[in-house]
Amino acid sequence: MAPTTDSAQRIQELKQFDEAKTGVKGLVDSGITSIPSIFINPPEVLETLKPSRYTGAEIPTIDLTGVNIPGHREKIVDQIKSAASTVGFFQVINHGVPLEVFDHAIAAVGAFHEQPGEVKAPLYKRGVEGVSLKSNQDLFHSKAAYWRDTLMVQFDPKPADPKEIPEVCRKQVLEYHRQTLPVAELLLGLLSEGLGLSTGRLKELTLIGGQTFVGNYYPYCPQPDLTIGFRSHTDAGVLTLLIQDDMGGLQVKYKEGWVDLKPVPGAIVINIGDLLQIISNEEYKSINHRVLAQSSPEPRISIATFYNPGAVEDVYGPLPELTSPEKPAIYREFTFKDYLTKFFTKEIDSTSQPNHFRK
User: Fold this and answer.
1) Sign of torsion, CA 57 64 181 179?
2) According to the lineage, what is the superkingdom (predicted)?
3) Could you give the 3-state DSSP secondary structure of residue 290?
């Protein structure tokens, strides 16, 4: 059946946006005063953009001071377990990464995105290997596009050649990754202890052997009430570490509303991914979150590192130690390759990835 005129026009608009290779920033730089129709979200999404009655108090900030001191460590594990098993998000402070590392990385990501479109265009592609500039990874699968561009750098298991990272941000990106990887390793151990397992049990599964850096740029939007910075979704992997500037806009689903995850200077935002929810047999929760479009002339910049298994052929499912006759395995086993295939062939949305693997 031939597409309708409307759908044919939409496909043409999607192709024009994609083939321009300049992303959302290119639209802003062109001087638009209204957003293209492909970015207008459906009414059921726009209705939820109204202010929530919930506050940010439900997202805890956890101090890692004394994490290796007996007595202190157990308290920190309890705090992390509580957050991971309820709201699925928390922020950590006193994690050992100097604040200037964050400041320099945020500034460098901004400098990359604010280069002329023709400078960035050679990096624009759909694949996830190496280094790439992206805007709307699921552009041709989604109901509406979102107002964000992303610099993506693959670190493991097939690391990009550092020379491929644009010079304007290369030094800062590499240093940021070097400094934050130990924090991810520490948190994985604490989360393992929170499940009643040994510190190294989750690490044995090579759960953070795959590491992807993304530098997100949310430019000014002339009609923020009609679109969204990044739509409601859960993260597919194991663990996400994120830093953000002071612009705000990140929200976490809480009960029937949304909680603003307000920036805390020097904090790293941590959230549980879908795969860790599965492995923990739902002891830990992967929660929907989103980013609002920016009405401010200043852009919002954030940096996330997604930690995933390093071996795509490995088999995952609920850990046997976390199942029992009273609490049987909720999910079936699968290879991480099958898991990724499912993720990259659908719209990135609030449809839970784990539901595809329920028994």
Assistant:
1) positive
2) Eukaryota
3) strand
